Amino acid sequence: MASSYCCSRLLLQSQSSRLMLRFSPFLATPPTPSSLSFSSNCHVSSSAQATLQQQHEQQPLPQSSQLVALEYADLNLSYNLDLGHVRIRQHVNPLSSSFSVPAQVPDWNHAFADPTLPLMVDIGCGSGRFLMWLAKRTPKERNFLGLEIRERIVKRAESWAKDLALDNILFLFANATISFKQLVESYPGPLVLVSVLCPDPHFKKKHHKRRVLQKPLVGAIVDNLMPGGQVFIQSDVIEMALDMRNQFDEVKTLKHIEVLDPAMLCDSEGWLLSNPMAIRTEREIHAEHEGAKIYRRLYQKQM
Ligand SMILES: C[S@@+](CC[C@H](N)C(=O)[O-])C[C@H]1O[C@@H](n2cnc3c(N)ncnc32)[C@H](O)[C@@H]1O
Question: What CDD domains does the entry give (predicted)?
């Protein structure tokens, strides 16, 4: 799944970050430091450029979509689904009237084999593969709800979940900004984890109101989370990560996990050094493949 902000960030990428791409951990044989020489503005000598070029030609980088398929290989999904003729749109405007109607609350008894299990909600779940991977690993322990505003990919996710015979996952076509509260308030079990992972950044100031995480949604997450429950946020766009961080840092009942568990290591600016979920999202894989840093925070609600 490519996104337009991926393209704009790529355009802005400096020569140094283009080089990072070639140092990707996915490279079978990374270049040795001695084969390169950097000056302060990351100029690369022509012989180093030639070496890199040669290595690149010998071992072309895997496409990031192949890396995504690799990450979720365990799921063994079919990619020949008939989704009709309507193409999957890259973006929608969540403020348009067609997305202003709250999603219908499902019959939870019908949605999950056991609707009293602890619930994880992934806001803006995209293709849903990240959530399916988690659902497959914790049957009978946890239910998973993916909220996504693009209807076509919800249909594909539903079809995949059906193929996998998962009875602990539900995908809903929903504008999470307006539907989350009603949905989780009606859920019979406890809400234990909410994730907002690589949300669309909507860079222009006049479009910030299109961002999924608005104040009422933050309130609904915090109010409905059980004590000890967690909120996981991440983005490869620092501006977006800071926007989410500022909103959750303000909440008195939430503590960032490093305060509670010193084993969760952060960098000097308080971003988690690694992904605590044991699986990456698609956007995360694409971004890391481009050499981007992922900014993560994990909050826990006070007991
Ligand atoms: C950049 S993608 C990230 C998808 C996934 N979380 C990942 O990390 O790969 C952002 C997703 O959020 C969805 N989205 C945007 N606004 C939304 C909203 N108001 N409600 C639900 N989903 C939304 C988009 O359609 C898109 O699939």
Answer: AdoMet_MTases
